[in-house]
Amino acid sequence: MIKAVKGTRDLLPPSTEVWNRVESVAREVFRAYNYHEIRTPILEETELFARGVGGETDIVTKEMYTFDDHGTSLTLRPENTASVIRAYIEHRLDQKPGVQKLYYMGPMFRRERPQKGRYRQFFQIGAEAIGSDSPLIDAEVIEMVVEILQRAGLSGFKLLINSVGDGNCRPQYVEQLREELKDAAPKMCGDCQRRAETNPLRVLDCKVEPDQPIIDALPSILDYLCEPCRLHFEKVKQFLTDRGIEYEVRPRMVRGLDYYMRTTFEVVHGSLGAQNSVLGGGRYDGLAESLGSKIHSPGIGFSIGEDRLVMSVEGEQTNVPLDLFIAPLGDAAVRHTAVMARDLRRGGFAVELAEGKLKRAMEIANKLGARFVMIVGDNEMAAGRYALKNMASGEQLQLTQDEIAAALAVASN
RNA sequence: GUGGGAUUAGCUCAGUCGGUAGAGCGCCAGAUUGUGGUUCUGGAAGUCGUGGGUUCAAGCCCCACAUCCCACCCCA
User: Fold this and answer.
1) CA A178 – C1' B24 distance (Å)?
2) ipTM exceeding cut-off 0.90 for this assembly
3) Whole-Å CA distances, A282 to A102, A126, A213, A301
4) Domains of chain A by range and CATH?
5) A14-33 pLDDT tens trace
């Protein structure tokens, strides 16, 4: 038997109802904040991600689906920010008035070992605001994403923020960190000893308990921010407080992508096991230039792990009701009710039309959770009044088509 | 890439000492005429993850692989 490839999965009803609800909630919120949808290709030249995401990151070095296409190296997108910036540059969106506010949703691909909340094809809902370095935009983006989570029905999540500095101050911090790790690292876990060499910032993210006091003693990035970065971060926090958004500053929070600078943020939720991050985002003021933009195009964005959000929200069952199940008796009734079904469906009702024995039709209607069953035989057709049975109460009335539509309308409110 | 657990009917799972499979739920069909839920009866459905090995005989023992789950790494 052929099965879905490792790390990918089929999304089936009723789960897809939850996915759709999450997506439509996101679209509503995006609209309210004046964001517009962008759809970029799932395939890009490999070079885009190497330059955008960072050639030394794990994503690029070992997690991408890359193949040769007649001499050109192509890659299934592992994330979407680089693509959006590429499109922004390619189509000269910098020439458009104001900040470009773009959102997207769709599949991403990373060749990682699958795990709870982690798949090789996973879905992200994200947005990018390009063309402003104002902290006001940072706060608005964060406000927007919190709004999406809340309206999607997520509760009990925690917003973490940090500033990772810029090309001016971060190198100095990393240098200092390296210096202190020369003494500290040998006392730490094996992973940290390795990280101290390869990626010192990652040491801060270590979860090994005995290492924590050592990490606490290491310098904080926040003490090394240059004046512009420090001011920017202060304003972001101030704007968040103005909005009544609760956050926690996590100077040790490190992000996996090279392009982040200044503001970074993350939302975590307890229901997700080890993959507790629902969303990550941050500012990337140098990304556009590194992808070839001639003009400075600072931006900030985020992406929600939709698989994880759906997982956290899925508890509350959204069942989509079937308004009417039609049970025609005989060929003439089938033809007659097919036309009625079309009219009622045009009226916006969810209608199922069946053939076969009445008893069987009733069983199916019951299993589908139909609110009403309409029974139509020769008697009904002759009278122009149809038997409408309320499945919850068992009450059955003889009604005209218009009266049936009215009854369905009342019930669906 | 590393480690641990799992894999038997559509689903959740039993399966004794090695003797070629069971339950519950679900599905389908009946219990006289055009009426669901409860009940009763019957039925279909399994290459026991795949491929090897041991054995007279393997769901069960051995090996390899695959997939899923959990964790590490890393990350949404």
Assistant:
1) 61
2) no
3) 15, 12, 28, 6
4) 15-169+225-313 (3.30.930.10), 322-411 (3.40.50.800)
5) 889 899 999 999 999 999 99
